[in-house]
Request: fold
Amino acid sequence: MPQNYVPIFIFVAVVGVLIPITLLAAKLIRPENPNRTKLMPYECGIDPIDSARGRYTVRYYIIAILFVVFDVETIFLFPWAVKFKALGIFGLFEMLIFLGILIVGYIWIWGKGALEWV
Amino acid sequence: MIAKLKGQYGSGICEANTYLGQNYMVVDPSIVSDLLQILRNREQFDYCVDITAVHYPEREKQFDVLWILYSFSKNERIRVKIMIADGESVPSAVSVWATANWLEREVYDMFGIRFDGHPDLKRILLPDGWKGYPLRKDYGIIQQDQEWVKANLGIESGQ
Amino acid sequence: MLDYITSYLSSNTTPGQAGNVFWALVYIMIVFGGISVAVMAMNWLERKALAHFQIRLGPMRVGPHGLLQPIADAIKLMTKEDIIPAEADKFVFWIAPLIILCASFAIYIVVPFGPTHAITDLNIGILFMLGVSSLSVLGVVMAGWASNSHYPLIGALRSSAQMVSYEVAMGLAVVSAIVMTSLHGLGPYGVGVGTSGTGTLSMIGIVQAQQEQHVWFLFKFFPLGFIAFGIFAIAMVAETNRAPFDLPEAESELTAGFHTEYSGLRWSLFMLGEYAAMIAVSSIAVTLWLGGWYRPFPNTLTGDTWDLVFSLFPGLTFLALAAIAFVGVRRMPKHPYFRVQTIGLAGFGAVLGLIGLILFVPPVRDRIQDIYWFIAKVAGFMYLYIWYRATFPRYRFDQLMKVGWKVLLPIGIGVLILTAILGVVL
Amino acid sequence: MAPIGTLHYLVVAAALFILGVIGVLTRRNVVIILMSIELILNAVNLNLVAFSRLWGLHGQVFAIFVITDAAAEAAVGLGILIAFFRNKETVNVDEVDLLKW
Amino acid sequence: MTDRTMFDLKPTDPKPADDKYLSHLELGEPDKTFLDTNELVINMGPQHPATHGVLRVILKLDGEKVLGTECVIGYLHRGVEKIAENRTYTMFNPYVDRMDYVAAVSNGLGYCEAVEKLLNIEAPPRAKYIRVILTELNRLASHQLWLGTHALDIGAMTPLFYTFRDREEILKIFEKYCGARLTTHAFRIGGCQYETYEGFERDVVKFLDFVPPKIDEYEELLTTNRIWLERTKNVGVISRADAIALGVTGPVLRASGVKWDLRKAQPYAAYSDFDFEVPIGANGDTYDRYTVRMEEMRQSLRIIRQAVEKIPEGPIMAKVPKVMKPPVGEIYHSIEAPKGELGYFIVSDGSTQPYRVRIRPPSFVNLQALDIMVRGALVADVIAVIGTLDIVLGEVDR
Amino acid sequence: MEQAIQPGMQPVATTFFFYLLSGLTLLSGVFVITRKNPVHSALALIFGLLAQAGLYLMLYAPFVAGVQIILYAGGIMVLFLFVIMLVNLERSQREERFNKQWVVGLVAAVALGVLFVVVYVKGKALFPYRIAQPLENSNTQQIGVMLYGQYMFAFEIASLLLLVAIIGAVVMAKKRI
Reply:
């Protein structure tokens, strides 16, 4: 393993030690006397009627999909960006075709209205 | 205008007068639905200022129900008043003026007067399930619905 | 062992590159402590600055000019009862703030405070930073889901949708900067002649590329670099959920968004994470576009005189702060009640002045240069954050999405393509 | 202890692959089945990257393609899941027994 | 925005209201079925930072989009109308201050004038001028408070502190005049209880010079701010016909393009003596309501300046009987409160206590327009619209 | 160990980290397939993915590790979490976790495992221990060259795949809009 990455693991170890200590320390000094009202979810002072989970609009999901797709696109651009001088015009065109295909998709979803919120 | 209305409804309009510079007319409950429509559409009383009621327990027809109307084009106000007995209902004006919705609910809430044709007649200021109509004269000023208070707030009523 | 420790001091690489575990640990601890202190200071400064924007005084009671307020807050939050709603998913509820906290602190692994003052220098530094910062989305979603309450859920969905949307624009802006790193040389636009043609993802490499090209990437291919920087600057505000993009925690709509149900220490972890992330993304912006740790005009204003002038800045800054503190001391009400506070402020000023004086000592002066300029640039961003908060109303969610997807994304792609074409042609 | 070689990684990858297969074959919840597929793909990636140490970077490039593929698969698969859930109010694979709805 | 033609007398469309609203009425189902639907239903309020008190709005949402709302009010109901029936006319006077507690002076003015009308007496001119000055100052204070909280709702934090700073000057004048800042109880039936204090005019003039640059300052922060424009333009639109059908009044009505202000239409107190304009809007959106109120602040300043310049000498109380027993009869009197038409309908049975006092609160009626304004909008717009309606729950619930 | 050992990074540490990370990977895999609550599964999967990124780092594949963190942990898992939030899972949580054919599935998986073991035992000798090390420092650059050279066709196809993914998902999910 290259040594450059060692600090990441040290970081993980430090976090793994520090956070439990903090949480434990806080647990020792804070009061603990829950009651029913305290443990109720916040609903602006009204008793909640139903579970809050699972009734949300699909638009959020479309946003997430678009994000993933464009994220993949960005990832593919990184190797090109560090070497694009060597890849030259040919690499540029490759990249442009790659982007172009995705831009077509982007324009399509724009026209389809998936980017509109309402 | 009054003359025209009188010509149309005859004795339906019991009284049309001015007191302290303010016009009012007392009409028969049976024609009030029509009359309000006409006032709105023909006479351009397009703004319903208020709907309210007054309770006279010693009268046979216990309630006055009032519509206070205003016309933007004439810059004029008029009060339409009907008298009804306890338990009688009044035609709703929601289809004439949308604003009547909450105003009628408040009258219902405070006096217990029902409005026929109201889309959602329920209590507005007092909580659902409250007993009694506070603005009636037989409702004491410190009176509370003790059962409701106990059931919903978990405290003894403050009396 | 001692050798192992001291040998690093004479090397000129980061502890990670030197493979020095001990110093890596020391650096990590310093960065952890430093960031925690910075977050506390930021907290105080934000409240103070915001207050002065709004013609009020801000914290004044705890310590002179409220200087001890963050400590008081920390103690308060530690001793507050920790409430986990009965309906909540305990484990996920417990782990969500930790994910956010770790994600925002992990970014600092690659932040170069100076050519050697970084925990490590990864050859995928910027990729690592993007990846780690994208992990905080998971924390947000989980916090909202675990609370099992309407407001946190809506806040979480909003927040995550917002964060992922702006991450795309952010990524494109970053790619533009990476493209610029490939353009070494001293031609007309700082490119062309003597090109090595290889870019880098390493954070230190990016800063050095700016030094080699004699230009901050902010001004590279003006206005392309500037636009890319603008995209990044907007995206980073949105990424950290700060005004005017603070919808997830829009207190007037969602009361507190995804952390509505959190209290006490757990809530403070969110705050710590948020502020740490603010500082982190600002550091990234400084690294990518503002020449990182380099002082202004390192290539034009050269020579010993200029070096000396610029090296005096850190000390002067602290002396100025000390002077402000002493002015504050003079303006303190002359009343026995305020005696302790006056002495405290004077002591604080004295400490600042002392630090300032120490910073004038030549060896310290030279060592501290990089860190000073880096922090000064980051502080500028921090001030911008506060300024935005004082000035702007809040975007609405659909407008936010519109800005992200329909404005920043096309502009980002356009800038990238133009930069690439320019880079290939020149 | 033996130094860690490619073989060690392959063993881990194989175990991960089997875990994924078990998940796909035994769970009812479609979301978890999709996650198990991700496990399988990860096992493949681990293999590819481990092999890349032997025969150059091809394996890493392939791993990137596999991740791309996983993204596309997750996007479409979960899209189908949502459409399905909206019609049938269930995410159980046992109940996906119609070819159209 | 404003033109000088006094009145907009075009008759309104005879159709009762927009179809949009009527369709809503068909939708208005009772609470139970409302919750049974598969959409997301959340409560906004009563314990919510942006509902301006204890208003509860049940929102039916599809994601971020509002499908419908239902207001639940009454959390602050104190039975003011019932109290009135058990107090003498004089004793009830302080109670009206507690309704719209940010514009207590206006409440008092309306009540006093209504009872004066019923008693058939008239306040002396000096008293009327003092009333106008104080009422307009109060309108300014109310609008400033509205602006601060409205901007805060939309996320601009700073205007709140600016407006509160400047409102403080008004409250100081009130305090010097009558000893109270919020619930002033400044007027008596028949005039004003207090003569103006020494230097009252000077204070007011000083204030008049002080505040216009401050109003410019608020506008500088907001009016041309891109985000502010995006958040307010075409948000919470209410058409002219809808506005009239829903009986909304005040700036909300005027922003929809109806040039109607009771101070002009049926002048009370001394308003007929002053020259001022009634600003109107064109689109009836949140931005128009904002500009209308901003302009109203400036017009108020104009009125106050004229009033201070022309204030006559003379007594401040009319001859009022020790024991007030108005003749049997009923009266409806309304004034233009900062929020809209504030009406008092008083029935006298000849005794010392009113037989019935009905208060027509502007906020109550305006709040009813919330639903139509936010249908199809986003959650954030609900906040903006609640803010722009300028409701005070003390008045809504009475 | 393939490379000359550099100061600070002992082979012991490599071994330790390998067993730690692969243990985490497998453990999280077990949690993924056994948890009742999909969110817990997702959480386990995230930890597994991060541990695996660590393994990639150990395999001198930093770019793949970065992609793993950004795309898998930060992208695809967000997608999973969104879906879990969008579909009401309360019912499925109360129900049986495994399907009716779980025995068959398990047997098949075990058979596969046996197959792997056989391959392992037979093919163990095939893998050399010392091999040429790809240059870790320019890993991304090398990947760039390959991706835009040798694998350009696959690369362009990938963009088509992504296009199809967008279109498919939007069409699928937008039915209602």
